[in-house]
Write a structure and sequence with these properties.
53% of the residues lie in helices and 2% in strands. By secondary structure, the protein is mainly alpha-helical. The longest helix is centred in the middle third of the chain and has 20 residues.
């Protein structure tokens, strides 16, 4: 059965509270764990050369990923899977296309910059994530979202949806190890999304721009 689970509200990316020089700490300096989020988001802003929409979208993904970090080492594969699972089901499919289109750059950033955060105990990323593994995670999330949104008015039908059906739809999205976004777009034409709750004005504007992404 498909479960909606506890999907985290997509939050507005924090504005950079630190000056750029604070993101360039000397190797001998350390920061407190509570400063880690601000530090990595500033680093992402400083090194990112993408257009504003792409940067903000990936910054939001990075923020959700960092929130789930617990203990040490971290698993890139497991934590990214958990991150995708918690993103609100009403976030449009174009969000995932933006993330997928820029995943090589985002993954490179995460593998390099997260272990470089100057904590007293550095974070260890214990694994990598192949392009196919990433594609499968995104396809699974897209398929799950489709069933949840398609049958949200008929919970009995949603309850009858099996994991095998979700997996079959996810596999249908993948062609030659890549997501067929035209198929995703076509299938989602009939899906009516609810507005995620408690969005600030910045997030509302961001979502409006995401829906226009092609």
């Amino acid at each position: 059965m498909v479960k909606q689970g506890k999907f985290a509200q997509v939050k507005q990316q924090k504005h950079q509270k630190y000056k750029a020089k604070q993101a360039q700490l000397k190797q001998t300096q350390t920061i407190a764990p509570a400063q880690m989020m601000d530090f990595i988001l500033v680093r992402h802003h400083l090194v990112n050369k993408a257009p504003a929409l792409i940067e903000e979208t990936n910054g939001r993904l990075l923020q959700e990923f960092m929130v789930l970090g617990n203990g040490n080492p971290w698993s890139l594969h497991t934590q990214l899977q958990q991150t995708l699972q918690q993103i609100d089901v009403n976030v449009p499919w174009q969000f995932y296309k933006i993330v997928a289109d820029s995943w090589p750059q985002t993954k490179t950033f995460m593998l390099k910059e997260i272990p470089a955060i100057p904590l007293s105990q550095r974070i260890i990323l214990e694994d990598d994530l192949s392009d196919l593994q990433f594609t499968e995670l995104v396809a699974q999330k897209l398929a799950s979202n489709w069933f949840i949104n398609q049958f949200k008015q008929t919970p009995e039908q949603l309850h009858k949806t099996t994991d095998a059906q979700v997996e079959q739809l996810a596999q249908s999205f993948v062609v030659e190890n890549h997501i067929d976004w035209s198929k995703v777009a076509e299938l989602n034409q009939t899906v009516q999304l609810d507005e995620p709750l408690e969005l600030d004005a910045g997030s509302q504007q961001w979502l409006a721009e995401v829906k226009k992404y092609v």
